[in-house]
Amino acid sequence: MNDKALIVAALLPALDGALDEATVTKLIEVPKTSAMGDYAFPCFALAKAWHQAPPMIAQNLVAKIDGSQFEQVKAVGPYLNFFLDKAQFSQTLLQTILTDGLNYGSTDLGHGGQVPIDMSSPNIAKPISMGHLRSTVIGNAIANILTKVGYQPVKINHLGDWGTQFGKLIVGYKKWGSEEAVKADPISNLLKYYVKFHQEDQAHPELDDEAREWFRKLEAGDEEATRLWSWFREVSLAEFMKIYDMLDIKFDSYNGEAFYNDKMAEVVQMLEDKHLLQESQGAEIVDLSEYGLNPALIKKSDGATLYITRDLAAAIYRKRTYNFVQSLYVVGNEQRDHFKQLKAVLKEMGFDWSDQIHHIPFGLITQGGKKLSTRQGRVILLEKVLNDAVDLAQKEIQAKNPDLPNQAEVAHEVGIGAVVFHDLKNDRLNNFDFNLEEVVRFEGETGPYVQYTNARAQSILRKAADVSLDAHSDYTIHDASAWDILKQLAAFPDTVIRASKDYEPSVIAKYALALAKAFNKYYANTKILVDDAEKPARLALVTCVSQVLTQSLALLGVKAPQEM
Length: 564
Ligand code: ARG
Fold this sequence. Notes:
Shape: globular
CATH architecture of the domain at 114-364: 3-Layer(aba) Sandwich
CATH class of the domain at 114-364: Alpha Beta
Number of strands: 13
Helix content: 40-55%
Bound molecules: arginine
């Protein structure tokens, strides 16, 4: 039983049915300072039913409830304050964590329901942007968190591998490119042709006609167009894979926009059958004014289908294939209206599961306060960022621990972990500025700080190698300075649930920072390895801290080296 449940169990019998379990659980608060107890129950909600003033109710409840499980239960004004029995609490908690191991904090909220997560989804022939990095790491962390609470995520990389830009790219390649150049450095050269196209078409509008014609050919299955397209796709994906490998992130599907080409006619037909399509200046649209949204553009005047049409086909395909209980799209906040339109059209089509579709937006990464832009060439090249982070970590480790045996591997885990952690530690909707030195620091609110704290705990355990822990020993801790850590450890299961409900990895990142901080404070003031009666309990505590820190990092997609 977790500690909050202990309080609910004590309160319920004394309330004579005035409030139910869920309400009581919701009402319980954590007081501002631990001097006021570990939990407090505000009595206002009972005043009406019992015709008494809240302070009076608090007084009466003290007498009425069974307080044997607690150190103290006290009325303070309208509140009933609970002080947990620290000795008993530490014993039960540490045993639970040691017994549960990696399953500590796991639940079955999801009952195995499938959850497609549309994530990463970079565009072929363009560099993966910082925005795509955010989508990748946030999506991956959400997948890990959902797995922990019993869902089955399906990670889908909805590659931007179709659209009119491929007509431009083919024209650019044929005019200014070469096979050797694309082979040597695919993305930067393909990007070059694309950028040049946009510079030249101002003065030579006929280029746009050529591009349209090539895209038309591509949609018609023309051999040369298809060959070039699939080659561009292949070499681009190979570049993206380098980044996914560095991050150690895998996908269950790479079905991009092109995958839905043969599934669009059915969507358009369904829209027609439901009389949802309207003509507007030669194009086919769905009117969404009832939703306060711009119309969804389904088919252009030249017959070309659009981004949202493909997303409609994808949403329907995913429902049929996975029978999902939720369907997530981890995509930047700037596409908010697109996903509102997508849901609205699905709703108009009569799909009640449109309510299970959730756009998970996130904020921008800026540099020096400025927005990044591919068109204006203000890009951060991701591979370089990750490599630079590893180099910086390497330098730091070299200075701190020159004899570390597997330095290169640890530097990789710390450098990459730093970038990922930095991305996940703020509420996902916040914008943040990217500064590599800041990201890779070993102190402050960083990934390396959490990793370092865990390595420190591991080093204590190595030194104490002679003590063996098992789930049946006495792990009672009387030392008050361990209290903060114990409460943090106990909060882990609820923290995971909160992160899963809000689709918010930062909840886990902030938790890991708080636990690391509590542990470092304890470590600075306590002689953990001194031989006394509480030594096994202290070592159990250190083991549990390391176990939960490692798990928190794993949920975020960050490795936890044993030594650094
Ligand atoms: N490729 C798009 C972009 O880079 C993101 C795709 C997001 N996923 C989706 N199903 N629309 O902006």
